[in-house]
Specification:
Blueprint lengths: L1 H7 L3 H10 L4 H16 L3 H14 L6 H14 L3 H14 L6 H14 L3 H14 L4 H17 L38
């Protein structure tokens, strides 16, 4: 019943109804994620952060728990709160390193680290994506950026990582290769 209610919900009001009628269910957690995502898409980052934080507090066992942390990271990045974004991306890629969002979080951490002027640290992040998640879609992006930074820094790597041509077109356990945290949307688990 909860899953059917979630599938039939298409806006914040109806997702709130799922949460009220079926508290603590996977469907209610999914509805909470949808609310947070919709708020972020509307530029309401403060409200979205509250929704993600409520999800994290109330749904620690949810199959998409990591989406709450990644959502907070994406919001922080969109608001220019780079230190907060880096913290959340680190948590996703470190503590939840087997999640499907880990390769993307590590890549985004590298991207923001580079923007902060720390090119060698960013290069390490990109190389780790390639080494730890070679079959992920993010490995292709990381290879491109690692090659660019290696050349820019004048480094000569003795053991090059797999080239982008060797990265599988079928990602193992990763999200789409979207370069934008908001572009891929928020996947939902089924109950």
């Amino acid at each position: 019943r909860a899953a059917k209610a979630f599938v039939g919900a298409h806006d914040i009001k109806s997702w709130e109804g799922v949460i009220r009628r079926y508290p603590g269910t996977i469907a209610a957690g999914n509805a909470n994620l949808q609310i947070a995502s919709a708020e972020a898409a509307g530029g309401q980052y403060s409200e979205s952060d509250k929704s993600y934080q409520a999800f994290i507090k109330d749904y620690s066992g949810h199959p998409l728990f990591v989406n709450g942390l990644f959502g907070l990271a994406s919001n922080a990045e969109a608001e220019g709160k780079i230190d907060d974004a880096l913290k959340y991306y680190s948590e996703v890629s470190g503590k939840y390193n087997s999640s499907y969002l880990a390769p993307m979080a590590l890549y985004y951490h590298g991207r923001l680290t580079e923007k902060s002027g720390k090119q060698k640290e960013a290069l390490q992040d990109f190389e780790e994506v390639i080494r730890v998640y070679p079959q992920s879609a993010m490995a292709t992006w990381a290879r491109r950026d690692a090659d660019r930074l290696t050349a820019k820094l004048g480094l000569n790597r003795a053991q090059p990582s797999p080239s982008a041509a060797n990265v599988s077109a079928n990602p193992q356990a990763s999200p789409s290769g979207s370069a934008s945290p908001q572009a891929s949307g928020s996947p939902t688990a089924q109950s």
